[in-house]
C-alpha cells in the first residue's frame, strides 16, 4: 500500500522530532503505521499473539534506533517493514534453537525440521532477489533451474553458444545468491552506511572491486551496526542455504 506524499512528508517531520526527543511524535508514527505492520506480521506468522508480539518488538526496536541517532531519516514504513521481517527471522531462529519437546523423531537426520515462519520469510527473500535480477538472467535461471533445460538446448533460442549459455547461467546464479544475501541487510539512512549495506552481499560472495573493498574495510573498522549486519550475512552464506527454487509452476514469479 502506497503512502500519499503529504503523509510521507509528515513522517519525515515526525522522525526528526523523535530524534530530538519528542516521544509523542513516535506515538503518532505508531498510530499511522501499526495497521500496515500488523498486516505484514499476520502474513509472516499464523498465531495472532505472535503477530502482536512481533509488531510490538519491531516498533520498540525502531524507537530505540531513533533515540540513539540511527535508523531512518525518511521512508519510515519501508524501514519499519524491513525491521519487522528481520525481527521475525531472528525470532524464528531463536525459537528453533530453544524449542523443548519430548518428541525427537522429527530431528532425526533423515527428517530435517523446517520452521514454517522462517521458511516463509526465506522464500520471500528469495522471490525478491529473483525479481531484482536483470530480465536475461531471470530467463536463463528459470529455464535451467526450474524447467531443467540444458545449455545446449537453450543455445539456439538465445542466439548463443552452449558455453556462453553456461557462463550466463553461472553469472545469474551468482547474482541471485548475492541479492538473496542482500535481502537480509536492513536499510540504513546515513549515506556511508547505506553505501556499505548495499555491498555486504558482494563482500561475502567475493565480488567487490579492490577499491570498494578498501572503502568498506575502512567503514567496518568503526561502524558496529554494519559489522553486525556483515556477520549475519556471512552466517547466512556459511549455512549454504540455497535460494528457494520454485516448483510445479508454468510461469516465473512476476
TrEMBL record:
Residues 193-227 form the Putative zinc-finger domain. GO terms for molecular function: DNA binding; sigma factor activity. Residues 234-254 are annotated as: Disordered. Residues 29-97 form the RNA polymerase sigma-70 region domain. The keyword DNA-binding applies. One of its GO terms (biological process) is DNA-templated transcription initiation. It comes from the Bacteria. Residues 239-248 have a biased composition (Basic residues). Keywords: DNA-binding, Sigma factor, Transcription, Transcription regulation. Residues 127-174 form the RNA polymerase sigma factor 70 region 4 type domain. Belongs to the sigma-70 factor family. ECF subfamily. This is RNA polymerase subunit sigma. It comes from Couchioplanes caeruleus subsp. caeruleus.
Amino acid at each position: 500500500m502506497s503512502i500519499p506524499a503529504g503523509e510521507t512528508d509528515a513522517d519525515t517531520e515526525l522522525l526528526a522530532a523523535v530524534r530530538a526527543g519528542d516521544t509523542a511524535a513516535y506515538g503518532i508514527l505508531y498510530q499511522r503505521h501499526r495497521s500496515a505492520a500488523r498486516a505484514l506480521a499476520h502474513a509472516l506468522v499464523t498465531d495472532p499473539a505472535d503477530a502482536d508480539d512481533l509488531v510490538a518488538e519491531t516498533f520498540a526496536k525502531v524507537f530505540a534506533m531513533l533515540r540513539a541517532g540511527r535508523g531512518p531519516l525518511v521512508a519510515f514504513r519501508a524501514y519499519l517493514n524491513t525491521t519487522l521481517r528481520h525481527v521475525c527471522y531472528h525470532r524464528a531462529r531463536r525459537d528453533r534453537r530453544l524449542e523443548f519437546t519430548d518428541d525427537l523423531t522429527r530431528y532425526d537426520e533423515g527428517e530435517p525440521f523446517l520452521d514454517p515462519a522462517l521458511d516463509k520469510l526465506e522464500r520471500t527473500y528469495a522471490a525478491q532477489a529473483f525479481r531484482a535480477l536483470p530480465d536475461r538472467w531471470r530467463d536463463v535461471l528459470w529455464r535451467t533451474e526450474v524447467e531443467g533445460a540444458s545449455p545446449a538446448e537453450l543455445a539456439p533460442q538465445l542466439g548463443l553458444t552452449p558455453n556462453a549459455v553456461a557462463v550466463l547461467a553461472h553469472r545469474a546464479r551468482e547474482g541471485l545468491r548475492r541479492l538473496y544475501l542482500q535481502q537480509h541487510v536492513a536499510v540504513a539512512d546515513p549515506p556511508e552506511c547505506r553505501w556499505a549495506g548495499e555491498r555486504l552481499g558482494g563482500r561475502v560472495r567475493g565480488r567487490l572491486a579492490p577499491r570498494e573493498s578498501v572503502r568498506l574495510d575502512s567503514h567496518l573498522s568503526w561502524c558496529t551496526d554494519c559489522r553486525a549486519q556483515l556477520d549475519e550475512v556471512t552466517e547466512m552464506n556459511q549455512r549454504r542455504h540455497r535460494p528457494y527454487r520454485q516448483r510445479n509452476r508454468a510461469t516465473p514469479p512476476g
